[in-house]
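Re: Re: ligand-bound prediction request (bumping)

Still looking for help on this. To restate: I need the protein modeled with protoporphyrin IX containing FE bound, output as structure tokens. Inputs repeated here so nobody has to scroll up.
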Amino acid sequence: AYDTLSCYFLTPRRIRKIMAKQGVRGPKPRPLIGNILDVASFLSQSTSKDMDHITHDTVNRLLPHYVAWSRQYGKRFIFWNGVEPRLCITEPELIKELLTKYSSKAGKSWLQREGTKHFIGRGLLMANGSDWHHQRHIAAPAFMGERLKSYAGLMVECTKKMLQSLQNAVESGRSEVEIGEYMTRVSADIISRAEFDSSYEKGKRIFHLLTELQSLCHQATRHLCLPGSRFFPSNYNRQIKSKKMEMDKLLLEIIQSRKDCVEIGRSSSYGNDLLGMLVNEMESRRSDGFNINLQLIMDECKTFFFAGHETTALLLTWTVMLLASNPSWQEKVRAEVNEVCNGETPSIDHLSKFNLLNMVINESLRLYPPATLLPRMAFEDIKLGDLHIPKGLQIWIPVLAIHHSEEIWGKDANEFNPDRFASRPFAPGRHFIPFATGPRNCIGQSFARMEAKIILAMLISRFSFQISDGYRHAPVVVLTIKPKYGVQVYLKPLIS
Ligand code: HEM
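Reply:
Sorry for the wait, this slipped through. Here it is.
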């Protein structure tokens, strides 16, 4: 009873008082639901229509509550997601301090962890404290140096397959395609191979189940909000349980068969893919006392897929949309790719020479950052700049708004202008944070950049593409920024 009282009334009241004393204000919360209805009403109004034309001025549409409240209450304001207080900050110095200095004192909240526990469990993305530290240490080598480079070959192979299916579509008379579907498929293919290599077919089934689970959990949180509702034998809960069981069974089978091969001497290692590397680490660290068990390895595999698949597919989809609607940049990037590769398939040595492509990718990540928000929860009282942040306060970094700020990027902040990444030293980690910053930044960012460069370079040298008359520009946020109706482009094969 005390915990409930504290969670619903005492802690929120204490936090509101502390913040009000420091001059941080915000919209008045309603009992229990806070400002949830206000946010929903802002969003339903701003996204009720598609945008008139292709404009990248999306903050009013995707974060209308941020726009209204920051105008009314200033750069720092507080609003309430139910009984959970959220402090919005946009000042670069505060953000850097929070994400670097306080990376262990501010992490993932109980609510976030609960919402994702059925599909990614205790994996790196949702881990906190010393668990996070150990897990990051174990996973980091998989995304660095020679191991990272070793994924280039499989990325090229998967892209060839995707280009062939685009070619087939064109040859069968379809000149218009929804490019997002192809980008989603190729990025799922790449991550399945990188994680499971020879067990790739089972890997694909696992990820299919994971995608279904994610959507079920999302629906369940909207429909079942009564305390203890996760224990009800509802249809959602039954489906979640059975899909989770099937997914874990498949993962266990893969891991067990590799362990068996090592035990009977048929193989000397657990494999060179991400899964093999995690099992090797688990075996070699048995004596360290850190309990990395099979469940954690399974959670880690699911996490890499969840965190890396859709984000990369969206980066690719938005970049194609930008290039398809900016033909002069498409030409410039194509000329660069042709000059660097000289008819060869892109290799690791070529990638660092794709300067224009890199600028376009950065501009795409700036305008359409797949992760629009970075949430953190203070686990203890901290001092952030001049602010005293009490334990239990959520801090909310609106990446999208920072990336579109005229104060930071200039008058053309809402224009597609990749040149800004050539002529002006931007500040990664302060103004440009598509992969977050500090110790908890994206572990897979080099993997994602390498993948994006390979796929885009191969696509652009094989096809020219133009935005279709049927494309409706309607970005929406469902965890990540998505094109509501996909991105339709006219494709024309190039004669080599
Ligand atoms: C364009 C593609 C990607 C974007 C924009 C992106 C963005 C991000 C961001 C913003 C975070 C920080 C989230 C937070 O702390 O709240 C993050 C974390 C993470 N990302 Fe990515 N990501 C991308 C691709 C990938 C890939 C390809 C992988 C793996 C294969 C990956 C794995 C992870 C993991 C495991 C974390 C958690 C790291 C930690 O907490 O230590 N991401 N990503």
